[in-house]
Amino acid sequence: MTTATTITTLSDQQLNSLSALVDGSTRSILSSLPLPSAPRCLEVGAGNGSVATMIGEHLGGQVLAIDLDTTHMRGSPGVEVARHDIRQGVPAGPFDFIHARLVLSQIPARKAVFAGLVEELAPGGWLAIADAGLVGNLLVAPRESDHEVWRRYNDAAYRQLGRTAGHDYGWAERTEVEMFDAGLADIAAEHLVPLARGGGPWAQYHANVSLMLEEELLAGGLCPEVLDRYRAMLADPGFRAHFHSLTYTVGRRPTR
């Protein structure tokens, strides 16, 4: 059974893994935007603070980094860390740049939060949102029976637990439309589908997810044998899959 101490350790690992896996794409998106010098920025769901630090170093402005849990963050030049629940309202702007990664798709109040983010943009300010969509394609299974293991785990973790928690795996691809409807300009989207290899960083990331959700998965009816086989499959060098997509969408608030 996964203990509270193990969960805390896994949370640290997951945040660091996520930074290693996707910060490069985030940096590329950030570098493509014509932001003013020394901008005022908001980082929503800052995690371990890697993106907030990146923004501070790259732009030289002031960054307000918020999250429900700030214990994983360390201070860095130009970054103010604050514990805040974005569902209770967006901090007052105006902000020249707002970034939210893997946040809105996971909260039921996503539309209200999105509207608040748009409202707090300065004229000409940029909003960048990155969210994951569910793909769930098992490309190469070490065993023929692993297709059923894959199906049962995905049903339990995403179609049951995820939906019960209010996750919306279609939000990522709708963000572009939401930005258009909100009146943003210069909207662009980039859609990525990472390939996970057995024993590789994406496979390990998702194996850790299964450890963090173990209690809920078992309580929901997933049998321990399926869970054990799922983890063994992800560690097998022959395993290949597309777990999810990652969509980055950016838009600018018009100056008038």
Automatic annotation (TrEMBL):
GO terms for biological process: methylation. Pfam families: Methyltransf_23. GO terms for molecular function: methyltransferase activity. Keywords: Methyltransferase, Transferase. It comes from Brevibacterium marinum. This is SAM-dependent methyltransferase. The keyword Oxidoreductase does not apply. The keyword Transferase applies. InterPro entries: SAM-dependent_MTases_sf.
